[in-house]
Design goal:
heterotrimer; A alpha+beta (749); B alpha/beta (226); C alpha+beta (83); A: 749 residues; alpha+beta; Phosphoribosyl-aminoimidazole Synthetase, Chain A, domain 2; 22% strand; globular; C: 83 residues; Mth169, Chain: A; three-stranded antiparallel sheet; 2 helices; 33% strand; ATP binding (chain C); nucleotide-binding (chain C)
């Protein structure tokens, strides 16, 4: 077998390379040849093909994602924006917070445990690569039909994987979601989010500057994980005798990752690191080309020095391997010894594999021969950009015309009661503790709030009580009915959840899960959702700091519901002022904030009772959301409310049931004038929350709402051990609890 | 004066910072100890905190048990120094045979994280003197290998000698024999338990209760009054 | 070079929840007639030099003090093959 060196490639222009098998289009391959002025070597082709893939290059989404920058609200809090490993925001007192949500959808369907586990590992490395100590994780999940046998394979595996990895890393899991819908049957969505905290001066970026600085690869050895693509190149073109398939599933080692966290943070603390990058998708190809292209010089890498787990790997495979728990640091020569010493202290393997050069080329050597000689920018940043065609789907009008407000409603109080019980027991509305009890929410000792609270909240300074809150939301049913509004509703809900806990919403990260971009219907959903989210973020004053796009989530022709998952990060000056969701104090007054309209399109009620999806989603009024948020935060800060819970899927009755069960107290509700009991209980109008007000604060609270123009309605009182709707029905808490809490264990335990 | 309480960090230890905080909240001085270091830095007591040392590979606690720091801890514990093992630390203590029995995978096979009610059965150990016998406390429990097991003779001996220090109430979370959540050695200086008192020492975080603080105030009083 | 295998099993009287879970799954998967399953660990040791009595004694000691926890586990040492 001849080594395909740069020299060899220049001499043999006509050698056929398997660019199509590696996922490149013909014009993309031609573009590579044009850039290089010759055919690429096998190793170069490996790098371009993986870095120009949809996953790494965002080639279909880029033109739309630009709106997040163009429409970004003026915001002093933003320290590092889109484009880095994760965005960074200022939360005051000298602290900065980085957070991000990513998808690990496809791997989690193939191998639920390892797919989900390595998803947690990847997002956590993104956080460390910014210089931050990870302090919490959240996991928004979308699964197929709860009754489907394959869901019994996927969900328990995913949950065990998230727990197995995250628990072993010592990161509290404080939030997330679990939604079931048949549209996710062949494409479950496993999104993983993480938050990290650092001091302003500790922010690190992925760039390799300063000629002579050393490039150090540290962490796990490189093996044959996740390089199906590279083996095509290795086996079919150059060496037919090799086993042609390497495992595409990556296996995570959380213990190694925990060591990686500690040793990286120790190196940061001693200011030993000039630039840093984690190795995720596209492995070394990505890390070297991004580090080099973001820095001032070039880079030279000796591939022979990469520590291997499998000595039969080819150079192409080493470049493409997605072995987990690896990082790449750029370190000044006189600090290398100390860096290696810290790695040794933590039993982490670290090797100098290259150095920053004063040229502008990325050069990679194997057995002394040059096998890669490229301008790193062309690999990392100048990938193709597509203006994919998009058009409003032909079926959209019919879907919106199928009005959910016309569905049969409960005929009498008994039916109403029965439907309430059915709703709170439905898999999407039922208690999620079967899942979340498998995650450690206490570790690190700073968890103030964790699921099922509206947002997860972490204390970041013990003396001052400074804290951050995070919530993630995304309603695919709403987005299917109207992707523009659906994305805004996801944003609004997440924003409201953060505010309901008493924290001020600051910034947004997103994970955009859609079907195939080659389908104009899907591309329209995607374009509309981004337009909605960017407009919404501008109006709410919360910039998008980064995120992730996951496309091709579909089975055959059937795409998933468009599912933009939106994470909102908030800050709270003193976690002692947080607002929990539990109704605990007998006699406190319950107030409904916001307006309730007949809005049932995409609602939980329409799904649970009628199996229906049609009509229009609830109206969005972001000015109202902002006002509601301000009221909730003021009321929390000034001690006017003892509990708050946002109203979203399932409407008021779901929220009241959850708050009552959480606090172990009942509620007596009165249907307000001008509303019927059904609409009062089940409507999913946006911009609403329910709060529990001490009697001593009633006047002050209602005066504040009145003065600022927020509709406020007294709907009842915390009382007894049942949820009682006057003149309609009574549901003992015990009956409600049984219905709400038995569903998931019944399905999956 | 105050007491110096060492908190050991093994590779993969997770609750070391939390335990140091609990020690400080109680008013004692927390001294970090490193697994590769035999030197116990003249501490008056040692806590082996929770986590997944060495990833729980081989068996939970099995690899840590052979670390240099444990040589000193074992020696000192035998000479009477107070040692508390929490969760993974309890697993380490059973692997060293300072405490009898062993931990198996939970009977339901899942990791479980919840608030757990315990009854303090023995309020005379170095780590429980601030409680009263029979007192019920509520602290977090979080583990996957938490099922306590030992042979019948050992269990009978533990019961007869009053060495069952804590028992699970309101439902056994993992199949532990005789609902045992924690035990003590004969002298009462070495105590191990699966639940996490260090996560219940401040009203704002964790469970929102301070039921676990008594472990750390107990040892502080004992050491300061000694 | 020789390979020595150490098999570690939970003692018969110790409950094995993982083995039981496997056993319960078998009928669902169409595998009938299995009355009990116990799950253990297998260590394959590549030994440098001859596997003589002294080497085996060291391996025995290793198994007893480290590879197995004899409070709950038994172990068996086997010499697999000589190459």
């Amino acid at each position: 077998m001849t080594l395909d060196t740069v020299k060899h490639a220049a001499e043999t222009p006509d050698v056929k390379l398997p660019w199509a098998e590696l996922g490149l289009k013909e014009d993309e391959y031609e573009r590579v040849r044009e850039i290089l002025g010759r055919r690429p070597t096998g190793a170069e082709l490996a790098m371009y093909s993986v870095m120009w893939s949809e996953h790494c290059s965002y080639k279909s989404s880029k033109v739309h994602l630009r709106q997040f920058g163009e429409k970004a609200p003026a915001n002093d809090a933003m320290l590092v924006g889109i484009g880095e490993n994760a965005g960074v925001v200022d939360v005051g007192q000298g602290y900065a917070v980085t957070f991000k949500v990513e998808s690990h959808n496809h791997p989690s369907y193939v191998e639920p445990y390892q797919g989900a586990a390595t998803g947690v590992g990847g997002i956590v490395r993104d956080i460390i690569a910014m210089g931050a100590r990870p302090v919490a994780v959240v996991d928004p999940l979308r699964m197929g039909d709860a009754q489907h046998p394959d869901t019994k394979r996927v969900l328990p595996g995913v949950v065990a994987g998230i727990g197995g990895y995250g628990n072993c890393l010592g990161l509290p899991n404080i939030g997330g979601e679990l939604v079931f819908d048949a549209c996710y049957q062949g494409n479950p969505l496993v999104n993983a989010g993480a938050i990290g905290v650092m001091r302003h001066e500790d922010i690190h970026l992925a760039k390799a500057s300063g000629p002579g600085n050393k490039v150090i690869l540290y962490g796990a050895r490189t093996g044959g994980d996740g390089i199906g693509g590279a083996s095509i190149l290795a086996s079919e073109t150059f060496d037919d005798s090799k086993p042609s398939k390497r495992p595409a599933v990556q296996v995570g080692d959380p213990f190694q990752e925990k060591l990686l966290i500690e040793c990286t943070l120790e190196a940061f603390a001693e200011k030993l690191v000039v630039g840093i990058q984690d190795l995720g998708a596209a492995g070394l190809s990505c890390a070297t080309s991004e580090l080099a292209s973001n820095g001032s010089g070039g880079m030279r890498v000796e591939l022979d020095d990469v520590p291997l787990r499998d000595s039969t790997l080819t150079p192409e495979e080493i470049l493409m391997s997605e072995s987990q728990e690896r990082m790449c640091a750029v370190v000044e020569p006189d600090k290398v010894a100390r860096f290696l010493e810290i790695c040794d202290k933590w039993d982490v393997i670290a090797t100098v594999v290259g150095e920053v050069t004063d040229g502008d080329r990325l050069e990679i050597f194997w057995h002394g021969e040059k096998i890669v000689d490229v301008d790193p920018r062309t690999v990392a940043h100048d990938g193709p950009v597509y203006e994919r065609p998009y058009a409003r789907p032909s079926w959209q009008d019919a879907l919106q015309a199928d009005d959910a407000n016309k569905l049969a409603r409960p005929a009498n109080a008994d039916e109403l009661r029965e439907q309430v019980l059915k709703l709170v027991a439905a898999p999407n509305q039922a208690a999620k503790s079967w899942v979340t009890d498998q995650y450690d929410r206490f570790v690190q000792g700073n968890t103030v709030l964790a699921q099922p609270e509206d947002s997860g909240m972490i204390r970041i300074n013990e003396e001052t009580g400074l804290g951050v809150a995070i919530a993630t939301d995304g309603n695919g049913r709403f987005a299917k009915l109207d992707p523009y509004k659906g994305a805004q509703l996801a944003l609004a809900e997440s924003y409201r959840n953060v505010a309901a806990s008493g924290a001020k919403p600051l910034a947004v990260s997103d994970c955009l899960n859609f079907g195939s971009p080659e389908d104009p219907d899907v591309m329209w959903q995607f374009a509309e959702a981004i337009r909605g989210l960017a407009d919404g973020c501008l109006e709410l004053g919360t910039p998008v700091t980064g995120g992730n796009v996951s496309l091709y989530n579909q089975t055959g022709e059937a795409a998933i519901h468009p599912t933009p998952v939106v994470a909102v990060l908030g800050v709270i000056d003193d976690v002692a002022r947080r607002t929990p969701m539990a109704f605990k104090e007998e006699g406190q007054l319950l107030y409904l904030l916001g307006e309730t309209r007949e809005e049932f399109g995409g609602s939980a009620w329409s799904q649970v009772i009628h199996g229906h999806l049609g009509g229009l989603p609830p109206e969005v009024d972001l000015a109202r959301e902002r006002l509601l948020g301000e009221i909730l935060i003021s009321a929390s800060r000034d001690g006017m409310i003892d509990a708050a819970h946002d109203l979203s899927d399932g409407g008021l009755v779901q929220a009241v049931a959850e708050s009552c069960l959480r606090g172990g107290r009942g509620a007596r509700l009165v249907v307000p004038d001008g509303l019927d009991a059904f609409t009062f209980l089940f409507s999913e109008s946006a911009g609403r929350a329910v709060v529990s007000v001490p009697r001593s604060e009633e006047l002050r609270f209602t005066d504040m709402c009145g003065a600022r123009g927020l509709p406020v309605t007294r709907i009842g009182v915390v009382d007894g051990d049942a949820v009682d709707v006057q003149g309609e029905f009574t549901l003992p808490l015990s009956e409600l609890r049984e219905a709400h809490e038995a569903t998931l264990p019944g399905l999956f335990a | 004066m105050t007491a110096r309480i060492g908190v050991v960090t093994f590779p993969g230890t997770l609750d070391d910072r939390d335990t140091q905080r609990a020690v400080r909240v109680a008013g004692a001085e927390a001294v970090p100890l490193w697994h590769k270091d035999k030197d116990l830095k003249q501490v008056d007591a040692v806590v082996l905190p929770g986590g997944f040392s060495y990833g729980d590979y081989l068996r939970a606690g099995a690899i840590s048990r052979f670390s240099p720091v444990m040589e000193s801890v074992i020696e000192q514990a035998k000479a009477g120094m107070p040692v508390l093992g929490i969760c993974n630390g309890f697993q380490v203590l059973t692997e060293t045979h300072l405490l009898p029995g062993a931990m198996l995978r939970n009977n339901h096979l899942h990791f479980i994280c919840r608030e757990q009610t315990l009854r303090v059965e023995n309020a005379e150990t170095a780590w429980t003197a601030d409680y009263t016998a029979g007192q019920e406390i509520r602290v977090p429990l979080k583990n996957i290998d938490g099922q306590y097991t030992a042979d019948e003779r050992t269990l009978d001996m533990l019961e007869a000698e009053g060495r069952v220090a804590f028992r699970y109430l309101e439902g056994n979370p993992n199949g532990s024999l005789r609902d045992i959540a924690g035990i003590t050695n004969e002298a009462g200086n070495v105590v191990g338990l699966m639940p996490h008192p260090e996560h219940a020492v401040e009203p704002l975080v964790g469970t929102g209760r301070t039921d676990g603080l008594g472990f750390f105030t107990s040892i502080l009083k004992k050491l300061v009054n000694a | 070079m020789a390979r020595v295998v150490v098999d570690v099993m939970l003692k018969p009287e110790i409950l094995d929840p993982q083995g039981q879970a496997v056993q319960r799954a078998l009928p669902r998967l169409g595998f009938e007639g299995i009355s009990d399953v116990r799950q253990g660990k297998r260590f394959e040791l590549e030994v440098e030099g001859p596997v003589d009595e002294a080497a085996l004694a060291r391996i025995h000691e290793m198994a007893e003090t480290f590879l197995a926890n004899t409070v709950i586990e038994d172990f068996v040492v086997k010499v697999e093959d000589e190459k």
